[in-house]
Each structure stands twice: as C-alpha cells, then as structure tokens.
Write a sequence for this structure.
C-alpha cells in the first residue's frame, strides 16, 4: 500500500458515501458528479487493496473492510479540522462535532450535567445525539457513525471490537397516577394498559419477569414505547401502568405526580455504562465529553449507594 497516494479528497468522498449510503447523494453533498465519486472511491480501494463498499440498487453499504477503515478516516478528518481550528484557520468551516449514542432512558439523566462541564472547555463544539435501542446504537458505533455510546453491555459476540465501562446500575420501577385502581393490588391491573419497553431489550426482560411474578391471570393490553413524554401523558391521562427506569421518574415521584406500585418491588438492576471501539482513539473533544459523562454516571452511582 502506497500511503502517499491517499489524498484528502479520497477521505472526504469515502466519508460522504458512508454517511449518506448513496454515491448520488454523496456527489450532491460534495458538489461533484457521480462518476467523479465512483472514480475517487475506486482510486482509494486500489490504494488500500480492498473493496470498501458494496454497491447495488439500494445504494452503497460499507463492507467489513470499509467498517474497519471508517473510524480512522473520520479521526483523520476530525483531527485535521481540530488542528486548523486551533491555529485559527477554520473560521469558515463547521465546528468540532462529537457524535454520541445514548439510550433514551439514560440520555436525559447523564448528558445534561456532563454537557455543563464539556461546554466550558469546548464552547463552540456541536454535539450530535442519537437515541435508539442498544443494538442499533452498537451497530452505529461499529460503523464509526458514533464516537461512543451510553448504553448497556451486549452479548459477547456483539461486543467484539468494543469495550464496556460500567458506570451505575439502573433499577426498574412501576408507576401510576395518584389514586390509580391498581394501587389495590395486581389483580386490579385488568383493563389498564401497560406501558412497556420494546420487546428484545434487557429492560423489557426485567418488566416481563415482574409481571410473571405477580401471577396476573388476565393479561392487560400493552403499549411499547420509549417516549418519556408519551408515556407520562398516558400514565396521567389514560390510567396506564408505566414500567420505567427509576432515574426517569425520580423527580416525578418526589413531586407526587406519579406513585410507585407498592406491590411491585424493585425490578432487576441493569448496568449502564460507556462503550467505545478498541481499535481507534477518541478525538480530543469526544474524549473530554467521555470523561464528563463518566463523572456524571459515577456520581449517580454514589448517590444511589448512599440512599441504600
């Protein structure tokens, strides 16, 4: 491989196609023609000696080699932008961007305090936050679409090439509006919808285990949602029963807007932590935010242990 033949235009073209999944859309974003994009990619693939994209009618998808190359390409371009910005020569270009994936159930808990610290050192940086299921976030991390993820550890096979750093344990709780009929006992759940995490998630497994332990004969209807605003509205207005991580309703419980079911007991504690790739180092800005989120998570665990 002749590394001297790799040019900046190769990296920019590669990242545009990887992000947009289409040679045509990449060409439009770069203000060049599609044949020029195809030629540039072919040149890069010849240099690295591997196909980086699978091209088809559905667009362009990264190959295994492309996924391995992507974090280095992104880091290369990001480091160049940071270096130019440090020298004051990047005034017309976009600011530093940190891409973070976070479970919807923990994003609002860990990111606000971390961002207060991060913004003091990187006031012009842009934070792009993606939320979704844990499996979706880990796939995006592997594809170098994210710098790091705030989530849960997956099965060993899915964790290949990544490292998990534990921050705190998140208990599941079950809440209803004050005066809800279900406060009388599990048999009163009939006729009231259950607000559940999506099937296939670890927190859903904990919720299913709780329901099974109650021995409810008639299974109520269910709504699967991770939307905090929707679930709160259904809890307060539709007499729904909400299975939710404790941290999301901690303030609501203190304000007595919702109350915990007394017979539910705490659900299984699920570990929450930071995930990053092992084959590429975080950039300066991403590394600083990573540290701030770590401190936020560890402080939350300290407070949980102090409560007993």
């Amino acid at each position: 491989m002749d590394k001297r033949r790799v040019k900046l235009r190769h990296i920019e073209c590669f990242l545009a196609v990887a992000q947009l999944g289409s040679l045509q859309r990449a060409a439009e974003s770069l203000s060049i023609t599609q044949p020029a994009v195809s030629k540039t990619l072919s040149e890069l693939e010849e240099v690295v000696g591997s196909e980086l994209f699978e091209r088809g009618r559905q667009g362009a998808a990264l190959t295994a080699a492309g996924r391995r190359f992507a974090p280095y390409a992104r880091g290369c371009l990001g480091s160049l932008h940071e270096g130019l910005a440090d020298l004051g020569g990047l005034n017309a270009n976009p600011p530093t961007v940190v891409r973070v994936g976070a479970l919807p159930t923990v994003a609002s808990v860990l990111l606000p305090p971390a961002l207060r610290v991060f913004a003091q050192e990187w006031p012009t940086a842009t934070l792009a936050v993606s939320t979704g299921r844990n499996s979706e976030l880990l796939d995006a991390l592997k594809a170098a679409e994210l710098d790091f993820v705030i989530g849960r550890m997956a099965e060993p096979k899915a964790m290949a090439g990544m490292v998990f750093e534990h921050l705190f344990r998140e208990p599941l709780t079950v809440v209803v509006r004050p005066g809800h009929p279900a406060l009388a006992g599990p048999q009163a759940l009939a006729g009231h919808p259950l607000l559940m995490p999506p099937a296939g998630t670890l927190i859903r497994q904990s919720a299913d285990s709780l329901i099974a332990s109650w021995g409810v004969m008639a299974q109520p209807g269910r709504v699967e949602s991770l939307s905090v605003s929707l679930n709160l509205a259904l809890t307060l207005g539709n007499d729904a029963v909400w299975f939710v991580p404790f941290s999301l309703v901690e303030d609501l419980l203190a304000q007595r807007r919702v109350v915990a079911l007394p017979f539910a007991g705490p659900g299984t504690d699920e570990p929450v932590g930071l995930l990053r790739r092992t084959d590429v180092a975080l950039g300066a800005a991403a590394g600083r935010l990573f540290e701030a989120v770590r401190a936020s998570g560890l402080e939350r665990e300290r407070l949980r242990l102090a409560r007993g």
